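re: ur question from earlier - yeah i can do the single chain one, its not a big deal. heres the input i used so u can compare w yours
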Amino acid sequence: MSISISNLPEDISQEILLRLPVRYLLRFKSIDDYKLVRVERFEEFDRPVKESFEVEVYTLGTDLWRKIGNVSCKFEKHQPGVLVNGALHWFVISCVEQLKVLVSFDIANERFVEVPLPKERLTYPEEPLEDAKYEKHVAELGGCLCLVFHVFGVRVDVWVMQEYGVRESWTKSFTITEVQETITKTFNLRLKWSFGNNKILLQGDDKLILYDQKSDRYWKLAVCQTNSDAVKVKEEQEDSMELEENWKSFYQRL
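and the output i got, formated as tokens:
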């Protein structure tokens, strides 16, 4: 006997959906419904170098997967979409221009759109142009679309799109300089969370870093999860009470 997932209680349905082996997963509350987005990579057997990426959407209300079609861009491995303004965002490689571009997938109309980057040059004229020196990723900061531009060992620029979809609204919010080399010399640096007190949570390599934009200070965090789901924080600097409150706030929202 088979049971449709849409006929199950909502909490059970959500638990099942979260355990599905999909590459990109999203719980999106839209018109009292939930959607899952999956991006799969295929290789053409007669042309092994040629790759194709197909997008599928599952809607809980209809209990069906639908193919949106192939996309003319290459998705990087293990790069989850960032949800801002009802759309998922990724940096991808354009198959046409062979350049890294920022795209969004609107959950409501299920369409891909390229998102314009800041008009201002991200690199400084005196900096080398080797791609290996730079890293950029998309994030969410205070409800706005955010661009993190990392020049390894030199600086981390954080840009915010103040008005969604308007290129001219990109503003450089703050810069982390080489003085904070623990951050600037971290590989695979990602902005994971923002708090309301000018603090952000960064992740890179095998560490978590809490950074205060206002004071330009940081704390390396060690997280230990116990059987009671408690979170303990061990910091390298002072203000342990404030750090623990920030971390608990982040943990409780997950």
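Residues 21-27, 226-238 have pLDDT under 50 and may be disordered. not sure if urs matches, ping me
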